[in-house]
Amino acid sequence: RPSFHFVSWEYNIRKLPHSVNATNWEHPELVSMIVMRNPMDQLMTAAGMHCVKDGTEAEWWDYANRNIRTNNYALRTIMSHENCCQGANTSSEYVELAKSYLQRFTFIIDLDCLDESLDKLSSILGLSYDHKSKNVHFQKEKKQGLSPRQIMANDTLYEYLVEKNRRDIELYEWSKDQALVRCEPRRPVVEPLD
Questions:
Q1: HEC profile for 94-113?
Q2: What does the pLDDT read at residue 174?
Q3: Distance separating alpha carbons of residues 97 and 79, to the nearest angstrom
Q4: Phi and psi angles of residue 166, each rounded to the nearest 5 degrees, phi first
Q5: φ, ψ of residue 33 in degrees (nearest 5)
Q6: H/E element, 171
């Protein structure tokens, strides 16, 4: 058996198969990590997004108002409380609770610094792995170069989604300071309007 036994939990829109906050992250034989992502970028990759990238304004607003897809995704995943996420009205209490849960992980990884973080993580764990060529999905996204605001092409919609996801944005900005590697973001978390 290899030195490490890996378990990966991925969360989708329809179900949360495991409660993140109910796990014993302090177990002495557990090395845990969570990858945090810019919430505005996350909105552009959510299930159902493929239907609106070239869609009408009505399709964009329909997407924006589907709470399960566009309502503080990371916070909802971490908290798994039914009443956690209420769009722009989400309580800051949930952000503080989510921060305390994230502090229980061995490593917090910022997706903007993924390659650098995996280099450092490999070094810390004594692993040798060429991961740069494996990160194809993220490389495609980097090459595309369009920001969420540019993809939406609607400042009112963009501002609405920023406000609706402000608690996720707050949590992400905090997590960047806690991350294994701190790097310059590929673009601002929230893009200023012209």
A1: HHHHHHHHHCCCCEEEEHHH
A2: 97
A3: 8
A4: -60, -30
A5: -145, 150
A6: helix 166-178
Check: CB of residue 102 under 8 Å from CB of residue 108: yes
Q: Where along the chain do its domains lie?
A: 20-178
Task: Return the structure tokens found at 95.
Answer: 């952000």
Residue of 115, 143, 100, 113 whose CA lies nearest to 37 = 113
Output the pTM of the full model: 0.84
What is the end-to-end Cα distance of the chain in Å, rounded?
56
Look at residue 8 and give its three-state secondary structure.
Answer: coil
**Residues paired with 33 in a beta bridge:** 107
Average pLDDT across the chain, whole number: 82
Place of tokens 């810019």: 38
Helical packing angle, 57-64 and 155-164, nearest 10° = 10
What pLDDT shows up at residue 1?
41
Residue 108 pairs with which residues in a beta bridge?
Answer: 34
CB 42 within 8 A of CB 73: yes
Higher-scoring residue by pLDDT: 143, 34: 34
Three-state SS sequence of 11-55 = CCCCCCCCCHHHCCCCCCCCCCEEEECCHHHHHCCCCCHHHCCCC
Type of residue at 164 = K
Decide: 172 and 38 in contact? Cβ < 8 Å: yes
